[in-house]
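Sequence in, structure out.
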Amino acid sequence: MASTFMSVINSALRRCCIALLCGCTLPAVAADLTETDFLDEMPVVLSASRLSQPVTDAPTAVTVIDQDMIRASGFRDIPDLLRLVPGFTVAYSNSNTWAAGYHGLGDAFSRRFQVLVDGRSIYSPHYGAVYWNDLPLSIDDIERIEVVRGPDAAVYGANAFAAVINIISKTAAQVPGEFVSMQLGEQDMRGLTLRHGGGDQAMRYRITASAQQRDRFERDVVGKLYDSGLIHNDNGQYFEASKTYFVNGRMDWQLSPDSDVMAQFGLSQGDWKAGSRTNELASLLEPNVQDSRALFLQLAYHKVESAKREWRLQAYFTQNRFDANQVADFSALVVNGEPVGIVTVDEYLQQTRSSLELQVNEQWTPNFRAVWGGELWQEAVNSPQYYPANASLSGEIARVHGNLEWRAHERVLMQVGALLEHHYFTGADISPRVAVNFTLTPGHAIRLGISRAYRSPTFFEEAGNQVLMKESGAAADVVTVPSTGLDPERILSREIGYVGYWPPLRLELDARLYRDTIDHFIGQVRAVNASDVLCAGNPALICSPRPKVFTFDNIGSVHSQGGEFQLRWRPSPALDLSVHYARAFLTTDTSDKNFKGDIPQSVPRESWGMLASYRLGYGWETSVFVQRSMTQKWLTEGDITEMFTRVDARLAHRWKWQRRDVEAAIVGQNLGDDYAEFRDTNVFSKRPQLIDYRRAFMPIYAYKCASCGFAQDEMQKISDAPLGVCPSCGKADYAKQLTAPGFALKGSGWYATDFKGNGSKPAETKADAPSPACGTGACPAAN
């Protein structure tokens, strides 16, 4: 075991060194950039500890997916963006769900992630899955995604087990005006998104409406053939298509210079197709038509009491309702001397979650920062088929957390945190974490960390009792029986990480070696003595005609170890390159023969990806995404999928029409060979054409002080200065006006504007920029 782990370390370090040596031979294309300038651009993350930190100070590894990466990828489904994260495996599974794994252990429900949207948890209380398809959020409304790679239960509690995916949407102030996005592609891919943003300086709002259509795979499938003949009975039709409609809105209200309110809502409706019709008898029990509805309401109040203390109070409510029905004639099937007859499938499922959360951030001394808070949850599920004894189940979760950051030395940062949680199934657990960051030189740090996290069983894992009914109302088939008394999964994670920045090269590197031990792993297993369990002492329940009846059990331990790195290189405004690599190993201590063989195969031994974009000039931009992953076994309902290489390419052109920004792009997905996702029948074929058209109607304004001449753009003004008060001289002469011709300050750089200042685009070089309006050379780009 030790030699295997050392080989992982040596292999990962060798690849890191090769990447660094290659980077160091590059010319200093940005030699005029000072280290201070570059460190000002160092990514700042919020998710790892609930404290705003540069990535060199974060207590665990974090991947940031920003708007540039989202646009360059060409992806239109949010789960696909996780392909940009080292160690993640992503696949569309079945029944309009997505499978994802981090360092393996992926199944159809992806139960080991905490997924947040603006602080709102969206994973399912029933399965623990995330229903990405009915999430009322457009990929165009995402500001950034922060992925915490590793357990973070000390901050977020149960389900922050393998990773945390924190999606941060755009504020209303970031998207004034109108926006249209349209897509048209193969496999009946269609998309339309409309957005409007407005308001004044005190209150801003945005409203987004969207309609999306997908047809995932080929409908008619022929089983795979090998030398030995047909080994899978896959012949038939597979239905994996969706039409989803949603609307969401956000309001940002600045009550005073030190307090604000954020309110959001979202509604979605899905008309989906799923299931199959094959030679397998069980396919008759799969509903082909699904109806999905989702809604959420969210309200947050933020108060800055002083420069050393602020707090946030948040409440939200979410509801997901899913309905699918099927009637199958099993009159020819005889069980216990009687024909089974008509069997009805009713997959109605309603899930709700209510939450109230308080978070307090404090600066105790110049070297001590703290964040603490608590949260109350109530979760409920309702499904006559999955929980026939009670139909409805509910439970409460209470948690308190705290994290302390201590700058013990100018080169040493220590962080200690813990979360105490009481769960309705498993009682009280404490999840601690300790991390130490050593700064070697500015922009270069080594991180040592150890943490423990828990994952409590879901309603279905603990109490699921899926029963199919006859037309008469009697039980016809039992699919799962309750487990009762499951222990929570427990992980002990140890890591050593390195974060480095090279300002002259504009190069960022994040490398990590880890070793995790998971105890009490929960897996779906065949029920012992199924016929006795189902029939004895329960005359209303007949023996199942299925050969297998399942339950959930703590099957043993899993050991995970490996290394990974991510690299981003931006030597000029024109080129943006990101590369990631992961190598992982899994072993298990379990007596279950299926998991004993499947778990070690559930992680690709090696995987890597690359996203490169380049601005060609004159508004043209091209990008390429490459992903390669070795063979892996998706757990439970999944198959062994072979090694694949996926290549996507995008060519886009931006221009102005009637003083508005317009972009059109053509995207080719999987330009190489076909490959299978999750199941052999999920064949992702070559999709050479996707037209992506976007048009923004976003007037750009600036704020200028009549007294001292200080100016900012609109987004800076809202976030950094009280209404009407100049942040430079303090006089109340700060007013809104159209941007002057020439140049305007936007974000961290100067942007070229048209003759009326409506709209803006990056001034890539000084030669591209028009002469400054002042004619004196005072504009930075003219120097």
